[in-house]
Amino acid sequence: MPILYQPLPTSARINIFFQAPGHEIITPSQVEASKLSMIVTGASGNFARISPSMLVKYGTHVSLFEAKTLLFLAERTSIPIPKLYAAYAYGPLDRDVSDYGSVYDTYIFMEFIEGETLEKAWETCTPAEKKQISVQLKEYMTELRGIPDEGYIGAVDFGIVTDVILEWSTPSRGPFPDEDAFNAAIADAFVAESKGHVGTYIRGMLNEHKHSIVFAHGDLRPPNIMIKDGHVEAIIDWEMAGWYPEYWDFAKAFYLEHLTFSTDWATYLLDILTPYYYEEMMYSKLMRVLW
């Protein structure tokens, strides 16, 4: 997501969004010098552990909306999430942004969560532990959905739609005033990427049902759930979170997981999240073109 500042400085500088009391800003050069280990390097961002208790997520595709979401949820919910220490944009940098990146790098410094991902832990969990984890997750997702609707679809602080469904295919990413406007943007993106006269069908499919707007994680998969001693230690990776139609987390969880049903995770997931079978099939059809 492009992060624009007016006027642009003539040389790269740190533009601080958040700094926790007592926390000193760690510069990009200090990050490079202090890495204890790289955890992930990918298109959505780089993750490095820079102290026993601190993780930094950084890169051209990292969004300050994730930092805003962590602050928002810490104030509004009891959901276990990483504590935010600092966040800033660094730039502008001389780079090609043809990949829809930015001339800025975003750095988010957060708590390092001890434990292992549910993806790694699930098959070694006992039935009792699986039940306990699913009960906890259901409580957290119910709490998340209980956050009052703020009258739009998009990220916190009246932000754009950060979900991948509109990342590549449309100049309009909101925020959208309602589901009709959101569906129209998705349909326009789909038609633009498709061949043939598909618009009427896609618009009809999207508008078949009306939904409440709730707060969604947007990427509730086992790699984003941290487990320790048979309990949920934290839910991480909130970069696509925001207000969406009520089916969003269910559709995303099943689509993004590319579930093969080779384990019983999907069975528990059907209890954690309210099922929306039609909408999940719709989302999968849309994403075959839009991603």
TrEMBL record:
Entry keyword Transferase: yes
Pfam families with a match to the protein in the record: APH
UniProt entry tagged with the keyword Isomerase: no
GO molecular function terms attached to this record: transferase activity
Record-linked CDD domains: APH_ChoK_like (cd05120)
Domain Aminoglycoside phosphotransferase: 65-269
Gene3D superfamilies linked: 3.90.1200.10
Keyword terms of this UniProt record: Transferase
Domain of life per record: Eukaryota
Signal sequence coordinates: none
Protein name per the record: Phosphotransferase enzyme family protein
Naturally occurring in which organism (per UniProt): Amniculicola lignicola CBS 123094
